[in-house]
Design a protein that fits this description.
By secondary structure, this protein is of the alpha+beta class. The chain contains 27 helices and 7 strands. The radius of gyration is 26 Å and the shape is globular.
């Protein structure tokens, strides 16, 4: 059985109690299996509604989602039927009169709920990409129901007794290493999530989880509402902004039917950062900055502070119920770090060096600003503006000078070419041959160039739009799990670039290109992943960012730049002199980048170490940053009121440190490629593919890293990369 965490936090590990009642829909609220034995339930054939969401996926590539025929109104009926169907499947396992075996309990559980997983995949996509008011109302009703249904599986005593029976006798069952690991992972996951609790405590746990599901959805809706706001500007106020940024702001104003001559700065990072970097108008920078950093923190209907306080307290209550000292302690049981202390140790090793570097950067900016006649203090809305001027003065390099060489389509081809060189994949566009969920979505058939067999179908959703959450991410619609007959992967990358006016090119920053390579690293991980059991189609939270961060490294190699970093007008490759400047400036502004990220990770961990979970989010953020010595010229990359990683689901809660943990492995891995004398070394790439990417969670990830690298990762490589002291 796959476990799919939706963007709103509903856990799609649904199944149910062995009640044997006829199909009647799902009701929110605890619906746990009675502890007393129940008679076996005879198989019942239930007519399936004529609903496109319930049909098996058809068409090429082993079947694809029918995106073009889906309507939000279809979800309630489809979810009700799919939950009840899986409920019957789980009942058949739990009520099996035969003694528990690996096949009739563990394998049967892995196969259960396939229809529900398909419906849940489309439901999750709507949560992330197409969250209309109509869908939000459906999600408000269904997230708690899905949470309740998830707990029916985890807290089903008869099902757990069968799992435990296999677990207790596993040593004598003749299982291979992967089967043993599967039994152990499933058993440990059920225990960690409450399977051993007393009946009353199970009821309380289920109630907490439903309350969290509602709160996650509420947070998501409020954040989305604030991110769909905009700041209106005149052309005079946009002085200093590149033409393509101005053009995008003009198009955004037209889309919103603003008055002629108006420009709209949408309240998302991809629109805000260029203004903060280039706009000469300091008042506009401050206005745009304040609008952006106060998302969810304006004391209005979209304020998220009360929702966050509820989430944090509920998490603490749940951790205490499950026998853990804090939410962080509970969340880190199935991670590489294992304990909050180890994660904190790594972060605090890097933090002082990052703060020291940030102070040097501010001093450089202040000196340059004062020379230009600015006599005030550097404020947060000045940081990127003056940092860009220091970059230009010190390295004769500006982001605006680079953008003409980083055209979106060229960078897409660069990603594909790199994947071919490293892993033998070919990408052929086939947009228009399979259904998509929005006209902007492009599709690509992925094949193995060794023998031409189809690896997957890759969807690329590039532009921002109303109803789509901010940021960039990867979604796996169908991973490769051979037990289920799923051999062709379906997955996507989703970005939020500003869509240009018709006929104009999409020029992106070097940072944006780096983000594309990062997210494509996730896509490559899932295209390569090849496991038998669905449970293994994933990784520990502090490992999952490792493959994607490794993939970033190939962007700035000469082989990529010479082929794909071409001027959008002349077609000429980026000059070597400009490449040399990029290399010299590669550690520039690392203080800012590290403090911005690491302050968010530290606040996350400290917040979720609170045993009682009682917190005023604004006050906690302010006091914790003061305690850490947060530079006054900066804010967290994600302030708590808009920290979707933490509060749209449990996914990254007490886990935002994972980017740094993964970067330790990433930097150490890249050092291995560099030591080979050729960063495209086929032997190392092949070992990385077979040991790290293909294996999912079939083996312990620390052991997998040691098998690949020959030792544990060394943090020294990361410190050197960022230009920090290694002692």
């Amino acid at each position: 059985m796959k476990r799919m965490v939706l963007a709103t936090g509903a856990l799609m590990a649904l199944g149910g109690c062995a009640t044997g009642k006829p199909y009647s829909g799902v009701e929110a609220g605890p619906a746990l299996v009675a502890e007393s034995p129940a008679p076996a339930v005879a198989p019942v054939t239930i007519p399936m509604p004529d609903n496109v969401l319930l049909a098996d996926w058809s068409g090429p590539y082993g079947g694809v989602p029918p995106w073009d025929r889906v309507k939000p109104s279809q979800f309630p009926e489809a979810l009700q039927f799919a939950v009840e169907e899986q409920r019957r499947e789980i009942a058949a396992i739990a009520d099996n009169a035969e003694a528990p075996t690996f096949d009739n309990s563990i394998v049967a559980l892995e196969k259960a709920g396939q229809r529900l997983n398909r419906v849940g995949t489309i439901y999750g996509l709507y949560s992330n990409n197409l969250s209309s008011p109509e869908f939000q109302k459906i999600r408000e009703e269904w997230d708690p129901k899905l949470s309740a249904a998830s707990d029916e599986v985890t807290l089903n005593p008869k099902l757990f007794q069968r799992i435990k029976a296999v677990y207790d006798t596993r040593a004598g069952l003749g299982l291979d290493a992967k089967q043993l690991r599967l039994v152990e992972k499933i058993y440990e996951g059920y225990v960690r999530n409450g399977a051993n609790l007393a009946p009353a405590d199970k009821e309380q746990l289920a109630t907490i989880n439903q309350q969290l599901a509602r709160a996650f959805g509420s947070f998501s809706d409020k954040l989305l509402a604030d991110e769909e706001k905009h700041t209106v500007a005149t052309v005079a106020e946009l002085n200093g902004l590149p033409k393509d940024v101005q053009s995008a702001a003009k198009a955004a104003a037209a889309e919103r039917h603003l008055a002629a001559g108006s420009y709209a700065i949408v309240n998302t990072r991809s629109s805000v950062d260029p203004v903060l970097t280039y706009a000469d108008n300091r008042a506009l920078r401050e206005k745009v900055w304040r609008e952006f950093v106060n998302r969810g923190d304006n004391g209005d209907a979209n304020d998220t502070n009360a929702t966050i306080a509820q989430i944090v307290e509920l998490r603490a209550d749940r951790a205490r119920l499950l026998g853990f000292s804090s939410h962080a302690a509970w969340r880190m049981q199935d991670t590489m770090a294992k304990t909050p202390d180890k994660a904190m140790d790594l972060m605090m090793r890097v933090w002082p060096a990052a703060v020291a570097r940030e102070k040097e950067e501010v001093a450089d900016m202040a000196a340059l600003a004062h020379k230009s006649g600015f006599k005030g203090r550097i404020e947060p809305w000045d940081y990127l503006y003056y940092a860009e001027k220091v970059r230009k003065a010190r390295y004769d390099l500006s982001q605006e000078e680079l953008k003409p060489y980083f055209q979106l389509d060229n960078m897409i081809q660069a990603m594909f070419w790199s994947a071919g060189e490293l892993y033998g994949y070919d990408f052929k566009e086939n947009t228009g041959t399979v259904p998509v969920f929005h006209p902007d979505v492009r599709t690509f058939e992925v094949t193995d160039r060794k023998d031409g067999h189809i690896v997957g179908e890759y969807y690329l959703d590039t532009f921002a739009r109303s109803g789509k959450r901010s940021g960039a991410w990867h979604e796996a619609y169908r991973p490769r799990a051979r037990l289920l007959g799923d051999t062709i992967v379906l997955n996507s990358n989703n970005n939020n670039f500003t869509k240009p006016a018709p006929g104009e090119p999409v020029l992106i920053s070097l940072d944006d290109a780096n983000t594309m390579f990062h997210e494509f690293g996730h896509a490559l991980h899932y295209l390569t992943l090849d496991v038998n059991y669905p449970t293994f189609a994933g990784s520990q939270r502090d490992f999952v960012e490792y493959p994607s961060q490794v993939n970033e490294n190939w962007l700035l190699t000469p082989q990529v730049l010479n082929r794909f970093a071409k001027h959008y007008q002349t077609g000429q490759p980026i000059p070597q002199a400009l490449v040399d400047k990029i290399e010299k400036a590669n550690r520039f502004n690392q203080g800012y980048a590290t403090v911005s990220y690491l302050s968010s990770a530290l606040v996350d961990m400290k917040l979720h170490l609170k045993a009682d979970g009682v917190v005023d989010p604004d006050a906690f953020e302010r006091e914790t940053l003061a305690e850490l010595g947060m530079p006054r010229e900066m804010v967290m990359r994600h302030r708590l009121p808009q920290f979707g990683h933490l509060f749209q689901s449990d996914s990254y809660s007490a886990g935002y440190y994972s980017y740094l943990w993964s970067e330790v492995m990433d930097a150490d891995t890249w050092a291995a490629f560099e030591a080979a004398g050729n960063v495209w070394d086929k032997t190392i790439a092949s070992r990385f593919k077979s040991i790290i990417l293909q294996t999912g969670n079939e083996t312990d990830r620390a052991e997998a890293y040691r098998a690949f690298r020959g030792r544990d990762p060394d943090v020294t490589a990361l410190l050197k990369r960022r230009g920090f002291p290694t002692n």
